[in-house]
């Protein structure tokens, strides 16, 4: 209601500002001319008094009187011209008045039909300060990207956007955002650990040399950083150093708080590395150091193709050595990392079939897959 009152007052004021000059005359010009004539008359009287007192010579007085007379004549001519100035006709005034009044009436009518007069007001500052919980992810990202496009040197903005990219699995964008945040706002354990995680995920879960460097930089700033410790241990496991990886995870487990969200991940990782494969055959290990190094020299497309080839090779080895428990869990996780939920679910089903649906291994596989968001088919 307040909006409509204010709008009506403003519209009325604007309309009157246009209508009043149309209704008025030229009284201002006439009043100004009368004032000037009175001044010249006073000057003539003062001139006569000065000549009577002998303060001015008759010749000079005559010249001054003649000049004042010429000014009076010019004033009379201008006054007549202004008096003769044409006034707007009544028809013109009516047309102008109708046009001025039509603008607010038409605009109000269109707003009532096409606008949202009942929508509560929401100032720009309030929209920008909107609680992220009330905004969609797309809105948040679009708002952040628009801001950073206009302010590329805003380190805090990059710092906010980087973990959002990470959650959206836009890993390459996350790497760029973390690097910009570090370049502009300096090192921090959180930023370096996030950078390492983004690099590792961009490489399909491989803890590469670049990712390892970022995690080590995070630990220099915060030796207790859980993310950096976890991924460095994962890197050891990927290099085949399972004993060292298990020791690192065990040490980490002893330092974590009881309610830490990393406890379940560490326990799961320990479960994967602690139990040797049931069969005597060669276990299905992950990529070696040379493969990791080679992956860093590839384009994203080639790297993805290499990772998929490695996963396919792991799948083939499990067909030859199906009793490798660790291999099955690595295969399930690999398919999840690649975004292939159907293949991950199929791998879970085959693993359960190998050991039997009622076996301890089957329960272990099912729980592990569930932690990754994969459930067995009915």
From TrEMBL:
Superkingdom field: Bacteria
All residue ranges annotated as the Cytochrome c-type biogenesis protein H TPR domain in the record: 134-261
GO process annotations (BP): cytochrome complex assembly
Compositionally biased region (Low complexity): 270-289
Xref: InterPro entries: C-type_cytochrome_biogenesis (IPR051263), Cyt_c_biogenesis_CcmI (IPR017560), TPR-like_helical_dom_sf (IPR011990), TPR_CcmH_CycH (IPR056413), TPR_rpt (IPR019734)
Keywords: Cytochrome c-type biogenesis, Repeat, TPR repeat
Disordered as annotated region, ranges: 270-297
SMART domains, sorted: TPR
PROSITE patterns per UniProt: TPR
Annotated TPR repeat ranges: 155-188
Pfam families in UniProt: TPR_CcmH_CycH (PF23914)
Locations listed in the record: Cell envelope
SUPFAM superfamilies according to UniProt: TPR-like (SSF48452)
CC per GO annotation: cell envelope; plasma membrane
Name of this chain's protein: C-type cytochrome biogenesis protein CcmI
Source organism of the structure: Mesorhizobium tamadayense
């Amino acid at each position: 209601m307040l909006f409509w009152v204010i709008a009506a007052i403003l519209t009325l004021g604007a309309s009157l500002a246009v209508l009043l000059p149309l209704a008025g005359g030229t009284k201002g010009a006439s009043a100004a001319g009368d004032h000037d004539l009175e001044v010249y008359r006073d000057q003539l009287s003062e001139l006569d008094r000065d000549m009577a007192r002998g303060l001015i010579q008759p010749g000079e007085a005559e010249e001054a009187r003649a000049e004042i007379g010429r000014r009076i004549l010019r004033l009379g001519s201008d006054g007549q011209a202004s008096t003769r100035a044409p006034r707007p006709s009544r028809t013109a005034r009516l047309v102008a008045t109708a046009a001025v009044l039509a603008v607010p009436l038409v605009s109000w009518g269109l707003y009532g039909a096409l606008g949202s007069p009942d929508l509560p007001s929401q100032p720009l500052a309030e929209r920008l300060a909107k609680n992220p919980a009330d905004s969609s992810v797309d809105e948040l990202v679009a708002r952040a990207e628009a801001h950073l496009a206009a302010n590329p040197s805003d380190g805090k903005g990059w710092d906010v956007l980087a973990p959002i990219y990470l959650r959206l699995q836009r890993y390459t964008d996350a790497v760029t955002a973390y690097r910009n945040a570090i370049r502009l706002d300096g090192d921090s354990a959180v930023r370096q650990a996030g950078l390492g995680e983004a690099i590792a995920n961009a490489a399909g879960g491989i803890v590469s040399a670049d990712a390892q460097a970022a995690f080590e930089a995070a630990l220099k700033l915060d030796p207790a950083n859980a993310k950096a410790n976890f991924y460095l241990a994962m890197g050891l496991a990927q290099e085949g150093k399972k004993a060292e990886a298990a020791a690192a995870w065990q040490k980490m487990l002893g330092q974590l708080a009881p309610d830490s969200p990393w406890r379940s991940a560490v326990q799961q990782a320990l479960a994967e590395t602690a139990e040797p494969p049931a069969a005597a055959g060669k276990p299905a290990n992950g990529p070696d150091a040379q493969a990791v190094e080679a992956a860093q020299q590839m384009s994203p497309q080639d790297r993805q193709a290499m990772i998929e080839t490695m996963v396919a090779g792991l799948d083939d080895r499990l067909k030859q050595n199906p009793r490798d428990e660790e291999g099955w869990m690595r295969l399930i996780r690999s398919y999840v990392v690649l975004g292939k939920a159907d293949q991950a679910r199929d791998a879970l089903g085959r693993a359960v079939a190998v050991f039997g649906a009622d076996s301890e291994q089957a329960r272990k596989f099912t729980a592990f897959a569930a932690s990754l968001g994969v459930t067995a088919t009915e």
